């Protein structure tokens, strides 16, 4: 597996915390070598068997936070697989988040710890479930620079964008599929709608226009495909 250098975009050996994450992600992939990666956000989508089949056919599937999966009573066109879950401290768990959790990799996304060491592992986290932090230095800081954020200000990307960035970083030559990202096409939002559960308020530490611009540029230049 080649990991792209976040500075120049070229494959290079990594001797940092990112290498640990990279090897774990590879180990939890549905198939290796990974040639197709799907990153599924939590925005509502219309039922679409073709979209669901495309997601499930990927070699590796990322989900984020309080995700939903398709099932007999929940046909949403989101697919049924979750190999890697990127989550954060303020997770609102859905019925799918911890189902079959021993077969998944959970990555802890907490860029806020660069500014204030206040986050703690929730008391309700399963005691036998490990949690691997996403390295701020190797992942979040380069992403923030790519988004044009001032590193002195407490501002960082949403979990979905972090998952997409991580997928591209770890598998720069893979086919990248995106689904369930409403803000790519509607970057001005004050609340989030979810495929499962109610809406939530968008916090002030995010800048959706910058994230939308970056992800949309990937779709436009063919770096990624958006599954509508």
Would you give an account of this structure?
InterPro entries: GT29-like_sf. This is Glycosyltransferase family 29 (Sialyltransferase). It comes from Geodermatophilus obscurus (strain ATCC 25078 / DSM 43160 / JCM 3152 / CCUG 61914 / KCC A-0152 / KCTC 9177 / NBRC 13315 / NRRL B-3577 / G-20). It is a single chain. This protein is of the alpha/beta class. The protein has one domain: Glycosyl transferase family 29 (sialyltransferase cstii, chain A), CATH 3.90.1480. It has helices at residues 17-28, 49-56, 136-146, 159-170, 208-220; strands at residues 3-4, 11-12, 36-40, 60-64, 84-87, 105-108, 132-133, 175-179, 191-192, 200-201, 224-226. A hairpin with a 6-residue loop joins strand 1 and strand 2 (11-12). The chain starts with a strand and ends with a strand.
Outline:
The chain has 228 residues and is of the alpha/beta class. It has helices spanning 17-28, 49-56, 136-146, 159-170, 208-220, and strands spanning 3-4, 11-12, 36-40, 60-64, 84-87, 105-108, 132-133, 175-179, 191-192, 200-201, 224-226.
User: In angstroms, what separates the terminal alpha carbons?
Assistant: 29 Å
Figure out the total of helices.
Answer: 5
Q: What is the topology, as strand order, of the major beta sheet?
A: 7-6-5-4-3-8-11
What's the name of the CATH homologous superfamily? Glycosyl transferase family 29
Which outline best applies? globular
The SSE string, one letter per element, is EEHEHEEEEHHEEEHE
Would you state the CATH class? Answer: Alpha Beta
Give the integer mean of the pLDDT values.
88
Helix content: 10-25%
The tally of strands reads 11
| Total domains | 1
How is the biggest beta sheet arranged?
A: 7 strands, parallel
Instruction: Quickly give the CATH architecture.
Output: Alpha-Beta Complex
- Radius of gyration over C-alpha positions, nearest whole angstrom: 16 Å
| CATH level 3 topology | sialyltransferase cstii, chain A
Poorly predicted regions are none
Question: Structural class of the helix and strand makeup?
Answer: alpha/beta
* Strand content range: 15-25%
Protein name: Glycosyltransferase family 29 (Sialyltransferase)
Organism: Geodermatophilus obscurus (strain ATCC 25078 / DSM 43160 / JCM 3152 / CCUG 61914 / KCC A-0152 / KCTC 9177 / NBRC 13315 / NRRL B-3577 / G-20)
